[in-house]
Amino acid sequence: MTDNSKKQVQFNDLFRPIQDNEIKLWTTEDGEAGKTLEAKKALQASKGSKKNGKSVADEILGELTSTQKKNYVLSWLYGLKKRWIHMHRQSRKRPHEMIESDVITSQATGPTHRVDQMLRASPRNLLTRPWNIIQILRNKEPGLFTLWVSIGSELHNVRLRAPRIFYVNQRIPKQVDSTDVYRKCIRTLPRSHPVYHLYEYEVPEEKYERHLHQLNTEINAFHIEGIYETRVPLFFRVLMQLGCVCQAKPALRDLLKVPEEFKLNQLDSALDDDVKYLSEDVFKTIFLYNYAQDTRSVWCLCMPSTKVGLVWIVEKSGIANHPNVSALYSQERKAKLEANSKRIFPEEDYTFKVTMETNVRQVYRSMQRALRSYHDGKHGPTMVAYISSHECDQLISLISSLSYFPVVKLRIVDGENLFSCLDWQRVGCKKLVTHFLNIYSYLTTFKDLCRYMRIPLGNVPTNPTQYGSDLSYARHLCKNGHVLWCSNSDVPDFGGKETDDHRLNVDSDDAVDSQINRAGFYKNITFELNIISLPIAAVLSTSRILDFDNSETFFKASSATKKTGVATLHSLNSYNNDESILLSSAFKVMKQMVHGWLKEVTLFQNVFADNHMIHFYRWLGSTDSLLFDPCLKRAVDSLMKKLYLMLIAELDQMGLQIVHADLNRVILSSGRPKYDDAVAHVDYILRTIQNKEIFSVVDLLKSKIWNLLLWLDENNYGGVQQCTQQAGKDRMLADTTTDNIGLTMNWQLLHFLPTAFSCQDSFKMIIAGYIMLIYNFLINSELQSTSADLDNNDEQIMTTQPSISQGLMQQKASMKLNYERLKQFSLELLNGELSEKLFNTVRKVQRAAKLHPDSAASTFPRFVGSHLHLTNPALELAKALCKVLSLDEMIADEIYPVKRDLLAILNVGEFAEIAEWKNPSLSMILRDFPCKQCNLCRDLDLCRDFDLNSNNSETEIWRCSRCKTVYDIDEIEFRLLQYLNNFCKSYFTQDLKCEKCQEYNQQVKESHLKVRCECGGSYVCCCRSEKHLQKITVLKNITSRFQMESLRTALSWIC
C-alpha cells in the first residue's frame, strides 16, 4: 500500500475545479495557520526580541508551507488568492484616497512608519508632478536612458525607453493605414520633396539596428521614394521632445504602481510660464576640479557636509611647493566679498587638506572612497559639479562612485599651458580656489542657459550655442509639421536621395565675389566699421531684398562702386536659380525662429538669445550642425550679399568714399581733414541709414580711426591710427608727439622679401618715413589754417557777420590751397630726399647680393602661398617700394621715372615681364573659422593672414585676432579636407556660361543642350581650371610643410 501523502502532486491538478470538501480543509488549515502565527508573535513579544520582523507576505508564506497537512500546495494557493482578492478591492479606490489613508496612518502610528509612508508616496510624485531633469545618461542597451529627476526636494533615478521613429514615403499606398508599428501621417518633407503616401514608423531601437541593413536595401526599391529621419540621434530626439521639464501624461496618473521604466510617448514637455526649471535650490553641491598638463595635475573635491576640501597634487618627484590653501581660500574670499558684497560665496569655515601623489590612480581611489563615504552617509539630494577637460562618461569610468550622483559639467575653460612656470602648484591651487568661490555664479548662469535652451543642467554640450540652435530649429520644424534632415555627417539626410543632385550639396563660398577694394593714399580721417548682424537682417528683410533685382540703386553711386556693385548683383541674380525656391517652407520656419530671438533681445535683453543671433551664420554654415543644409546657407548668402550691396550703395550716395568693403567690415574715407568734423559727419550718416527699416537691424560699429591711411589691400596697409580722444587744438598738439602716434605697419608682402641685406628693414624705414613726413606736414598746415581762421573770425566779429555762402567759398579755397601745398611738398620730397634714399638703398642691396651670388636666390623665404620664382633681392625691393609709393596719386606720375632709373641700375628693361610687380602670395580662405578659446568666427586666409613662428622664422602659425590663441593644426587639416571635397564637387558639377553674354546654360537635359548660345557665343566653364590648380598647389605646400597625412592621401587621388 502506497503512501499518497508523499506522492508528488501533478501540475495540472493545481488548476482543477475546487471541490466542496477541499474548501473545508483549506478553511481549517488557514485557521490553524492563523493560530500558529499568533502564537509565534506572542512568543517573540514575551522574549523581547529586537530583530526586525518579516513582512506579512513572508510570514503567511512561511506558515503555510510549514503546515504538516495534506495538499499543502493547495493551501498555499488559497492564501495567495485571498490576498489577491483583497488587493483587487483596494485597487478600486482612487489613488489620492490611498495616499491620504497612508498619511493618516503614519500620523497615527508615530514616527516608526514615516519611512514606509515616504517609500509609498514618493514614487507617486513621478505620475502627478512635473520633473526637473538634472541629467540624461545613455546606457549600453540601445534605446535605454537613465534620468536623474528632481521633484521638489526628492531625487529620483528613472529609466526611459526611447523608440526609433522614421518616415517612409511610398508611391503605392498600404492596404492598412495604421497598425501598432506604423501610421499614416501628413508632413512636409525636406526640400519640398513630393509626398505620396507617408507613414510614420515607431519601433524599438534594438529591432531597428537588427533590420538596418534590410532598411537600407529597401531605399532602392521602386515603390519607396525615400526613408527619412533615420539619422536622428536618439539623445537629440529625447532632448527635443522632453526639454528640461516634463511630466507624465494624464493617462498614467490613474495607475496604482509606478512603471519600472517609462516610454518616451508617455511623457510630455511641461515648460510653461508657471513651471520654472530648478526654481528651488534644494540640492547640495559637491565641487570637483581638475587641471592637467603633461604628467602634472591638480585635483580637488569639496564636500558640503564636512566643510572639507581635499586637494591632490600629482607630481612625479613628489616635491611639495604649494601654498597654504586654507589661508589662500580665506584671503580670496575676503577680497571677493569686498569687491562685491551681494554675491553668494561658499561658507567661510572650509578647510583644505593637501596630499602629494606620484600616480594619478591613487587620486582616483581616494576620490572614490570619499564619494562612497558621502553617499553612505545619506546627506540628502546632492549633485556633483565639476570643472575638467574630461567628459562626463570618461570621468565616471575613472571614478565609478560618481554614478551615485547626477554629474554636471561646468564648461569653464582654463588657459593653455597653465603649469608652464616654476610655481605651478601655487597657480593650480589659486585656480581651484577661484573656481570654487565662483561655483554659485557658475551654477546660476548655467541654470539660466538651460532654462532658455530647455536642456538639462547635466547635458550642456561643448558648443551650447550651435547645439541650442539645432534644438530650437528642430522644435520649430516639428511644431510646423516638418520632417527633419538631421545628420552627424556633412551630408544632410534627404531620405537616401542625397546624391541625386550634387549641386544642391555644394557650399560654393567663392561663387560670387562681393569684395570692393580701392587702393590709394587717404589723407583725410578714415573709419573702419564692423558690420554686425548682417545675416540676421538679411533673413528678417527677405521680402524687401527680393525686390532688389535691378541695378538702379547704383546709378547715383561713384564709378568704381557702381561697376563692382552692378557686376556682383548680376552674378547673384544668375547664381540664385530656382533651386533655392525649394527651401521656401524651411526658410520661413527659420525666419520665425530668428524673429523669436530678436524679440527676446529687444523686450527682455536676453543675453543667450543675443548670443544665438551673433553666431547664427556660423551655425548655418557649420558642417558639425545636425541641421546643416548647404542649399539653405546658399539662400542666406545670396540675401546677405544683396543687402550688403544696398548698404554700400547707400554709404556711397551719402558722400563717403569706400576704401575696402566685405561682408564683415567696411573702411571708408570721410573726406574731412578735421577729426571732430569727420566724426560728426559719419555719425549723422550712420543714424540716417539705420533709421531706414531695411537697415534697422544692421549695426555699424566704429572699430578703428586713421588720420592717414596708405592702403593696398586688406593684408597690406600702413598709416597713423587715432589713439587719443582729445578734441580741438589739444588733440592736434598731442598727435604731433611720437609717444601718442599710433603708427600702424601691416605689410604682408614684407615677409616675402629676404631678411638678408637689410631688405625688410629698408622697406619699413622708407615707407614709415614717408607716411610720417606727410602726416607732420598735414598737422602743421592744419595748425596754421586754424590760427588763420581764428584771426579772420576776430576781424569779422569787429566788422560784419559773413554769410553762409561766403564761409563755404572760403572753406573751399582753403582746402584747394592746402591740396596744392601738399602736392608741391610731396613732389619736392620725391625728387629730393626720397629719391636719393631709394637709389642708395637699391645700390647697397645690389652690391651685397653680388658679393654673395650663390646665396642671393636662397635668401627669399618660402611660404605656403609662394608661387613666384624670386632670385634678385634688389629688384624685388625696388618693385615693392615703387608699388607702395605709387598708391599716392600726387606722385603716381612722377614715380615711374624713378622706377625706370632704378631698373636701369639693375640692368632690367622698363617693359620687361619681371619688372612688373605681382603679389608674391596666393590666397586660400577658410570661411567662418572658429576660435575654441574665445569663440570668435572669422574668415582665415591661410596664405596671407599668418604670423611667423618665434622658433622658426620661416614657419607660419595662425592666431586668433582677438585672443591671440594659436589655432589647432588638426582642426585646420579637417577643414582643408572639407574644402578640397567641396571645391572638387563644385568643379565637376559646374554649369556652362556663354563666353560673350555671360548667360548660364541651365538646361541639363541632353536634348536641350546647345553647342552655342543664342547670341552666337560658345559655352565655357564657370570655374576656370587655373584657379583650381592654384588651390591644389597651395594644398600641396601646406601638406609638405605641416605633415598632414590625411590631406596628402586625399590629394594623391586628384593629382
From TrEMBL:
It comes from Trichinella pseudospiralis (Parasitic roundworm). The gene is Pole. One of its GO terms (cellular component) is epsilon DNA polymerase complex. The keyword Zinc-finger applies. The keyword Zinc applies. Its cofactor is [4Fe-4S] cluster. Coiled coil: none annotated. Its EC number is 2.7.7.7. It comes from the Eukaryota. DNA polymerase II participates in chromosomal DNA replication. This is DNA polymerase epsilon catalytic subunit. Pfam families: DUF1744, zf-DPOE, zf_DPOE_2. Belongs to the DNA polymerase type-B family. It is an enzyme of class 2 (transferase). PANTHER family: DNA POLYMERASE EPSILON CATALYTIC SUBUNIT A. One of its GO terms (biological process) is nucleotide-excision repair, DNA gap filling. It is found in: Nucleus.
